[in-house]
Amino acid sequence: MTDVVLEASGLRVYYNTRRGPxxxxxxxxxxxxxxxxxxxxxxxxxxxxxxxKSILGVLxxxxxxxxxxxxxGKDLASLPREELRKIRGxxxxxxxxxxxxxxxxxxxxxxxxxxxxxxxxxxxxTEAIERAVKALASMGIPESRLKHYPHEFSGGMRQxxxxxxxxxxxPKLLIADEPTTSLDVIVEAQILEILEDxxxxxxxxxxxxxxxxxxxxxxxxxxxxxxxxxxxxLGGVRDVFRTPVHPYTQALLASTIHLESKELFSIDGLxxxxxxxxxxxxxxxxxxxxxxxxxxxxPAWVEYRPGHFAACHFGKDFL
Length: 319
What we know:
Blueprint: E1 4-17, E2 20-33, E3 37-41, H1 48-56, E4 64-71, E5 74-75, H2 81-87, E6 92-95, H3 99-102, H4 109-120, H5 125-138, H6 155-167, E7 173-177, H7 185-202, E8 205-209, H8 213-219, E9 222-227, E10 230-236, H9 237-242, H10 247-254, H11 292-296, E11 302-305, E12 308-310
Parallel strand pairs: 3-8, 3-9, 6-7, 7-8
Antiparallel strand pairs: 1-2, 1-4, 4-5, 9-10, 10-12, 11-12
């Protein structure tokens, strides 16, 4: 038996457009162990959500997927659609970015749960409702709200419902795509505490996609920094926060506001067009340390300390 739950090798996800393929995920490799939380951070448009959706196979028609993506030994990229549907929702679950638009306004909360459970298991409606009640109770939502419609709940409550729906099948892997977006800080803290408790109880693996480095520091074991469709740094949260190797990681950390902040810092420029990304190191047009080699030669993926990788020609200079 292996502890590896998810393994990607040379994963590429290209959206085909009239202008050419959008290289949203372009050659990513990583592993995740059972019970581990991996944070994925980066600016908007760097490919984080595409990575999450590719794991579940919920990509638009015509999307090109290359490389290997294995879940408990099964290659998700080559599985027949029917086999993938059996895994999706039951063994791998996804919390979508915006709970306001992911619940059908014509269905009660009970309807949502019953449909989800019975799509994967041959159980009676009564049993499905009983499981829904337990899942909602774990989120602090009483049984009396089961017959209510989505518009009768606040944003924080809807997000709790989405989490409960994701966990009702007891998945082995949960992908949370910015689960605290549009929530206030109090509700955000509650949601993160719930996710951490449930991960511990069910021993599931969690991929947390977020812009918030504070969240990553609080709940993640490892951190993957993504830029222009690629991982530029990957390592234990403490290692990456204490000694970031890649200039992009350094810039993201510098832009975080904390109690000692005296001025705001931002990264000059914008993320590149993924139809025609910059050659070699994709961060070089915005990097203050860039030299000629950064424009002509792609940096190697180097292990700078055990489990801490980065792709930068001058990574050793930052240790």
